[in-house]
Specification:
Bound molecules: adenosine-5'-triphosphate
Order of helices and strands: EEEHEEEHHHEHEHEEH
Distance between the termini: 39 Å
Radius of gyration: 19 Å
Oligomer: single chain
């Protein structure tokens, strides 16, 4: 069963996007071969693949931080170039401003948008609460754990209320328990905001727990190898991970992923 809120309208289209990088010495690497994917309004899609398969390249192209060699990114059927107000990004590395408190970080996009002080505080507090940081709003990032800092970054992106949320391995640096609990939080937030979400990850459990569809990428040149529709009932808390249907998805997707990860290890001589 897909999320009940998901409609059939395509909101984000990745149409024949590819990217090649020129390395020092003249060699070239195809980071992304022609990749096409449509994401529907309210859908949660994860992109999973071995290290170096082009996940971040795809993320950066969608977010407008990198130009593709071929293809187009479309929102509501219209081509976009560069960053777009409807797309919010949460990055792999910590991206909070250390000199600002939690609330100071979360109000920033609202400040930039010219939202009056009282309103921006109220709106920001809503997102602070949503990510579970109530009581910590006056702390500075140095007084928080890594997971709390990532949740601050998430709240800041959410505060600008983008229709499409892009996340590039936002929990990669966190320990397993924190990851799972944040996974629960993401499910809750996604249900509340019904935001179209694209998550880049190399964590299979996380991808299955959160997604309507899991997109498996091949190792170099990176492109879509398989798309798996996850038909697990929602809401899905981390408890679902030990269920039999969950483990079947895990086994099925892991087969494809293992092939690509093995190829990656051999080709990059790990
Ligand atoms: N700016 C760049 N210049 C040259 N090569 C690059 C550049 N950015 C990425 N690459 C190469 O493109 C390929 C894909 O990189 P990318 O970071 O998109 O992979 P990834 O799947 O996100 O990897 P990881 O899971 O390790 O973050 C890799 O071989 C990488 O070395």
């Amino acid at each position: 069963m897909t999320a009940p809120e998901a409609s059939l309208l395509v909101v984000l289209s990745i149409a024949g996007v590819s990217k090649e990088f020129q390395l020092k010495g003249g060699a070239k690497v195809t980071a992304l071969a022609s990749t096409t994917l449509d994401i529907k309004e309210g859908e949660f899609v994860s992109v999973i693949g071995p290290s170096g398969c082009g996940k971040s390249t795809l993320f950066n192209i969608i977010g407008g931080l990198l130009e593709s060699d071929t293809g187009r990114i479309l929102v509501d059927g219209r081509e976009i170039r560069g960053s777009h107000k409807d797309i919010g990004m949460v990055f792999q590395e910590e991206s909070v401003f250390p000199w600002r408190t939690v609330i100071g970080n979360v109000t920033l996009p609202l400040e930039i948008a010219g939202v009056p002080k009282k309103e921006r505080y109220e709106r920001a507090m809503h997102f602070v609460e949503l990510v579970g940081l109530t009581g910590f709003e006056n702390r500075r990032p140095s007084e928080l754990s890594g997971g709390m800092r990532q949740r601050t970054a998430l709240a800041r992106t959410l505060a600008s209320e983008p229709r499409i949320l892009l996340m590039d391995e936002p929990f990669a640096a966190l320990d397993e328990q924190t990851r799972m609990l944040i996974g629960d939080k993401i499910v809750q937030i996604w249900r509340e905001l019904n935001q179209t979400t694209l998550l880049i990850t190399h964590n299979l459990t996380e991808a299955i727990q959160l997604s309507d569809r899991v997109v498996v990428m091949s190792y170099r040149p990176g492109t879509i190898k398989q798309i798996v529709q996850i038909e697990l009932p929602r809401p899905r808390t981390s408890e679902i991970i030990s269920s039999e249907p969950f483990r079947r998805y895990l086994g099925q997707i892991w087969q494809d992923l293992r092939e690509e990860a093995t190829r990656g290890m051999i080709e990059s001589k790990i």
